[in-house]
Design a protein that fits this description.
Length: 228
């Protein structure tokens, strides 16, 4: 992956699509906010991906912090992990998507250096992980990035209220009946998929590659605690 990113960055430079005027190493999303880990994370990003000032500008922001239940008070404790929004003002022209449990992460063009423009920083390890990596390693509390931090899209949540309910099943039924329309971003088949995936839309709740009444029925069964 590092080689692919490095090649992409070099190619962009050769094509002359990147300004060579001086840029600051870090452009904050919120210049008035004092971030706790910026001076640790930014050098790691530059070293890991061989980025060199003044050619690259890192956009940086710290977001949601997760504390395990046995942590001390928030004012005193070190968070188990922090969501960090960090990316260059660069992107490669390939869409990407990941299914993580019941959630979907997707973007129309790839962020550099981390997919979806975000990473997970674990202070006690002083390590940075991509969101898919953190999820696959079953990092404690990682599900909170979806349920509390608002990362990703819940499969079946067609009304976009960030929870699965009977309203979603009803909305699918109305869309199929022509009474209303699916959200313009409901379909996901324009994104790059790993081999074997079938999900074609956020409304494709049963993940069979089709958007139909079976999805509304599956949501109803799920909410009733039945197999679907």
């Amino acid at each position: 992956m590092k080689k692919i990113l490095s090649f992409t960055l070099v190619l962009i430079l050769l094509l002359g699509t990147l300004s060579v005027s001086a840029m600051s190493i870090s452009e904050r999303f919120d210049p008035d906010n004092e971030y706790k880990y910026e001076e640790i994370i930014i050098p790691q990003v530059f070293q890991q991906y061989q980025l060199e000032d003044p050619y690259f500008e890192i956009r940086y922001r710290e977001g949601y912090e997760y504390y395990s239940p046995d942590s001390a008070t928030y004012d005193e404790a070190t968070p188990d992990y922090v969501i960090v929004y960090v990316n260059c003002n660069l992107a490669y022209g390939m869409s990407s998507i990941d299914i993580l449990g019941d959630y979907v992460l997707r973007e129309s063009s790839g962020s550099i250096p981390y997919p979806y423009g975000k990473c997970i920083y674990v202070p006690t390890e002083d390590k940075i992980y991509s969101i898919p990596e953190a999820y696959e390693m079953n990092l404690e509390g990682i599900e909170k990035i979806f349920t509390e931090a608002g990362v990703g899209e819940l499969i079946g949540d067609v009304d976009k209220d960030r929870e699965l309910s009977i309203k979603d099943a009803t909305h699918i039924q109305k869309c199929l009946a022509g009474l209303t329309e699916f959200d313009r971003y409901d379909m996901t088949d324009e994104f790059v998929w790993a081999e074997g995936t079938a999900l074609c839309a956020i409304s494709d709740f049963n993940r069979d590659g089709e958007r139909n009444i079976k999805d509304a029925t599956a949501i109803q069964k799920c909410l009733a605690g039945l197999e679907y």
